[in-house]
């Protein structure tokens, strides 16, 4: 069924960074019935699509994908053909556009950020800002480089990485100074980006061990010298770091985006699966008690507990108004945020440690003169500790400790992930609870000794040390956002120390050798 306009849209996806997609491109993807793309490079763009959208992967056969595109277009379905960079900028889709025109299929071309401008910007090179002229060429179409040798501006070269050294020699032979600055950037605007800065005369030796392959951009000219001052992307504190995030995809979403903002490459590995309780009747009785005035307090110690109650509310056709007259406590900023999104503002949160112990320090003792009801509802996990119940009971409260959800250890991750964990393929791992430590080690093994171990708080640190892991980073407050920020600060200090020592900054995984990390 068509979801709107009957059109084939050729959409520029930009040079690599999925955030460089235009608003028009995102709007068309949201309406698409079929998306044609290089899935390995453009998978992230599919998040703009509706559920159930058809996908044709060019890597599985360009001719077959093109045939599906024409068939869908003729049938009046909405098709988006994602193109690297800009569809009309040294692109090979012009024949596809012409075929649509010949077939009488309505089409649209949506410009994108071309690699010629986007990649130098991400490399910190003001390619067109300082030079008197700016010229872009496709190396596959140049037979005689002498025509570009006497060019006095910035020369940007597409499709030339594999022939970079012969091109440099040809420019020198044509009269260009061998001291002319040159930069070669591959995988531009992605967290895999690498840039080698050299001169035309030294490019061969400097590229010898760099293993630079397409896709890439070569920039020739004095503008390359601006990189020393303007480099901003490759100098991010966690640039290129592979960071293991052992949480469910739903829980890791915000944390993953924050890590990407620091230049990291987050890899989500669920260590637990959150499932409904085996006997839902207990939660049913608790919700009925909540709306019938059985409780004075409801305490939420996790976002999963908020989600479980909210889902029960949906079943009963209730909303946040059912909390009227109740006092609500929350542990942790993310839990409080989930409650606010639900329409409930917590009355009590720990001011210090965000834990059951921290909540008990703030919780008022039961006073029969002030509290008409002495019962507290605790919707929690099946493996929750008894500390909170015991503490509240000592203060005179009666607790209904209800299993709102079960936590089940997830299946082991794929073999390559397990090998990377144990072999030092990850630069850091973020542990957001003691259970993530236990479960990750249980399903995948201990992280290698070079992997930076980051923990959310003292209890998680203690658990990590019990498993023989040395803790490198601890958040200054127990939140996932604070933990990511602490890791970024650690990465920045490591980078600054390397530069101060005159060394090239290296990721932890690039230093791997030896055995697993042991606690001191």
How would you explain this protein's 3D organization?
The chain is α/β, with parallel strands linked by helices and 520 residues long. The protein has four domains: 8-113, Tetrapyrrole methylase, N-terminal domain (Cobalt-precorrin-4 Transmethylase, domain 1, 3-Layer(aba) Sandwich), CATH 3.40.1010; 116-230, 2-Layer Sandwich (Methyltransferase, Cobalt-precorrin-4 Transmethylase, Domain 2), CATH 3.30.950; 242-271 and 411-511, Rossmann fold, CATH 3.40.50.10090; 275-409, Rossmann fold, CATH 3.40.50.10090. Helix content is 34%, strand content 19%. The protein has 19 helices and 20 strands. Strands 3-2-4-1-5 form a five-stranded parallel sheet, sandwiched between helices. It has a five-stranded mixed sheet with strand order 6-7-10-8-9. Helix 10 (249-261) packs parallel to helix 19 (480-500), helix 12 (303-316) packs parallel to helix 13 and helix 17 runs parallel beside helix 18. The protein is globular.
């Amino acid at each position: 069924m068509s979801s709107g306009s009957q059109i084939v849209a050729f959409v520029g996806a930009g040079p690599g960074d999925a955030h460089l997609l235009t608003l028009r491109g995102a709007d068309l993807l949201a309406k698409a019935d079929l998306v044609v793309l290089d899935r390995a490079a453009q998978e992230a763009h599919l998040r703009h699509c509706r559920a159930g959208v058809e996908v044709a992967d060019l890597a599985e056969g360009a001719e077959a994908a093109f045939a599906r595109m024409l068939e869908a277009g003729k049938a009046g379905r909405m098709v988006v053909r994602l193109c690297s960079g800009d569809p009309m900028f040294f692109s090979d889709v012009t024949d596809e556009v012409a075929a649509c025109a010949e077939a009488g299929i309505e089409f649209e071309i949506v410009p994108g950020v071309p690699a010629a401008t986007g990649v130098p910007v991400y490399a910190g090179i003001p390619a067109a800002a300082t030079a008197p002229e700016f010229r872009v060429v496709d190396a596959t179409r140049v037979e005689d480089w002498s025509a570009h040798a006497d060019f006095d501006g910035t020369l940007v070269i597409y499709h030339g990485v594999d022939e970079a050294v012969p091109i440099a020699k040809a420019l020198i032979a044509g009269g260009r100074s061998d001291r002319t600055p040159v930069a070669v950037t591959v995988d531009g605007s992605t967290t895999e980006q690498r840039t080698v800065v050299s001169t035309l005369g030294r490019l061969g030796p400097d590229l010898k061990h760099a293993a630079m392959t397409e896709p890439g951009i070569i920039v020739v000219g004095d503008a390359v010298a601006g990189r020393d001052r303007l480099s901003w992307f490759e100098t991010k504190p966690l640039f290129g770091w592979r960071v293991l995030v052992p949480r469910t995809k739903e829980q890791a979403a915000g944390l993953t985006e924050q890590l990407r903002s620091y230049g990291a490459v987050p890899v989500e590995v669920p260590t637990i699966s959150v499932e409904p309780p085996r006997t839902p009747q207990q939660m049913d009785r608790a919700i009925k008690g909540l709306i019938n005035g059985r409780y004075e307090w409801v305490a939420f110690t996790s976002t999963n507990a908020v989600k479980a109650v909210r889902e029960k509310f949906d079943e009963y056709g209730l909303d946040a108004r059912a909390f009227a007259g109740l006092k609500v406590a929350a542990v942790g900023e993310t839990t409080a945020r989930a409650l606010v999104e639900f329409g409930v503002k917590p009355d009590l949160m720990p001011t210090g440690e965000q834990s059951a112990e921290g909540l008990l320090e703030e919780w008022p003792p039961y006073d029969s003169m002030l509290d008409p009801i002495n019962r507290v509802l605790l919707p929690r996990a099946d493996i929750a500790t008894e500390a909170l119940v015991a503490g509240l009971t000592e203060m005179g409260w009666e607790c209904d400790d209800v299993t709102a959800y079960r936590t089940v250890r997830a299946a082991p991750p794929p073999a390559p992930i397990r090998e990377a964990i144990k072999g030092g393929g990850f630069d850091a791992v973020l542990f957001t609870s003691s259970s993530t430590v236990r479960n990750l080690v249980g399903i995948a093994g201990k992280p290698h000794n070079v992997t930076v171990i980051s923990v959310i708080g003292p209890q998680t640190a203690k658990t990590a040390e019990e498993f023989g892991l040395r803790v490198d980073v601890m958040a200054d407050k127990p939140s996932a956002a604070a933990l990511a920020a602490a890791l970024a600060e650690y990465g920045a200090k490591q980078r600054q120390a390397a530069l101060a020592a005159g060394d090239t900054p290296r990721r932890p995984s690039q230093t791997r050798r030896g055995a697993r990390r042991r606690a001191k």
